Amino acid sequence: MKHLSLEKRPEGVAVLTMDCADSSVNTLSSALFAEAEQLLDTLEADGALKGLVIISAKEKSFVAGADLAELQSMVHEPEFQAFITRGNALLKRISGLGKPVVCAIHGHCLGGGLELALAASYRMASDETATIFAFPEVTLGLMPGAGGTHRLTRLIGLPEALPLLLTGKPVRIKKARKLGLVDAVVARYSLKHAAVQAALKLAEGGMTQLQKRRRTLVNRLLDSGFLGRSLVFKQAEKAVLKQTRGHYPAPLAILDSVRHGYAHGVASGGQEDVVRFGQLGVTPSSRSLITLFSAMNSRKKSPCQATPVAVKKLGILGAGLMGHGIAGVSTDIAETTLLKDRTLEAAAKGAQEVMRGLDRRCRSGAITSFERDAFFARVIPCTDYAAFKNTDLVVEAVFEDLELKRAMLKDVEEVASETTIFASNTSSLPISAIAQGAGRPENVIGMHYFSPVHKMPLLEIITTDKTADWVTATAFDVGIRQGKTCIVVKDGPGFYTTRIFSIMMNEVMLLLEEGISPHVLDEAMTRFGFPVGPVTLVDEVGIDVGVHVAGVMRPHCEDRKIQGATLLDRLYTKGFLGRKSGKGFYDYTKGKKKGQRRLNSDLANLVVARPSKHEDLEELQHRVSLMMINEAFLCLQEGVIASPEDGDLGAILGLGFPPFLGGPFRYADAMGPSTMLERLESLEKQHGPRFKPADLLREKAASGVGFYH
């Protein structure tokens, strides 16, 4: 067999080992189902069998969920239903084996893997940080379809189970034990032996009382009766709708599944789950989310042909928010991380922020206390360049000042080796301008991180015509090891993400200048699917930052005949910087009114036009989103990005473009290039040449072939 093996031990316990061929993780597939069905036939016919242990041979994976490649190949509901029906039947056979079944879990126990564990009699897990539990189906637009919704709620209770089902967030071993999700925790290398012994004790009746979590009185009351459960469901549905605005059908389907199971029983609930799984599998949102996940997964291996150099000594210039953020995601990849600032006090403050981040990871169970202390010991605050000799990579993360960045590059080149890479974290300044006058321009590259660094998954790598291939490969390799999804883009004002975002924000400012209320614009774009309204976002980022980026992008806008908004400049001149100064478009010095942030009263004096009584939200959504989307088409047309996939990843992971729409290019394919062309042409007639459609879109519309074919 390719994926499974069965060992019958002298004690009478069988050990089923999962080890999917040609993969670093175990996934549930039709091929694995076929082998499991055959082995279960053998086990069910074995009268001498005392118990079964299910374990994985993988280094960090119990089961990582369903085989997404197989799911992506499915087109119709019956295909999804047939797949999940088969998985459901297997888990029913395991739970009804008539002998104790112990799952010995080390590594990722996700999705169908967690459903498998829940179908067992007993769950034993390793005590290592690699062991995590989650139902990530909801993040893929799907739901657990093999009984997981019903088994989980009955094991740990409805109030504790729903957050796991509805968010997909992982649970580490300490919390899993507390929840009652696992029955025992042991050292990894004793896991198999301990699981076999547990199976024998269960078979002999020596472990009749399994570990139970002490649940609070409130949770017991909420879970035990119809009224309590109704309250939990009502609050959960309210939270889901507030969070998703109805764009994601999976969370509501999960709630319906759990409700049905409580009302009609687990068997009926399982049958309904099969139907719902098939319905969700063919939704556009699920197709987009699965494609996004697959694209992110594919970036865990570098596409670069050149060989990267090992980055053992890392230097970071600037210990502020971005600098200590970059240091924080680098502590476990570099042997030494230099954190330089103008004063030792500032550098030490940045190092302390790194420690706070490590401490949070330690408390969550992501790393051990020993790893926390060892990683922090690698961070060295400093104030001069003397220590930068033999650094492999230096990342500058200082204010967007071109001359300052050039001076830093010169200082680094004077003390570092000929192979030291200099990377700028600039969000808008051309890398070629920073590298002007450099002694080794081939070593200069852009590494654009997003704030907050530890949360934002994208790294935009910017290359110039002179950047060496090995330098690009090294930047990509570092990004992967930092846990980032990387895209490589060509140099230019704003690169890709800042360019398409600034063009969109210019349109937002023009709409505000026309008198559209900030509240209305924010509402329109959050309804479209952005996580935060654009006006709120510019207040959060800082109006001063917006003014700087607008200045960098001004020549590009003039070339494109894009009318430049002036509202940001006027706010900046009056000292309104956004939340950081207490006032921007909104007033942060006062409380909210009817749940809304109050407007800055001075805004009325800066906007000549007055809002109309009836704003067309759909038209606002088109004007704002299509400016960004059309600019993305131009970036692909000009070779700034290499592929539609890069464009979609950058827009979603860096800018919050609605994931359920798949990104600008998948959104265009779903809408149809011809339809999108018509909308842009209509806007061009109404509002001028800034909406002129990209020639590439015209080509797609004429050929009838989408960006992804």
From TrEMBL:
TM spans (from-to): none
Domain 3-hydroxyacyl-CoA dehydrogenase C-terminal: residue ranges: 494-588, 622-703
Residues making up the signal peptide according to the UniProt record: none
Reactions this protein catalyses: a (3S)-3-hydroxyacyl-CoA + NAD(+) = a 3-oxoacyl-CoA + NADH + H(+)
Domain 3-hydroxyacyl-CoA dehydrogenase NAD binding: 313-491
This protein's pathway: Lipid metabolism; fatty acid beta-oxidation
Sequence similarity: In the central section; belongs to the 3-hydroxyacyl-CoA dehydrogenase family.
Entries under PANTHER family matching the protein: TRIFUNCTIONAL ENZYME SUBUNIT ALPHA, TRIFUNCTIONAL ENZYME SUBUNIT ALPHA, MITOCHONDRIAL
The protein's name in its UniProt record: Fatty acid oxidation complex subunit alpha
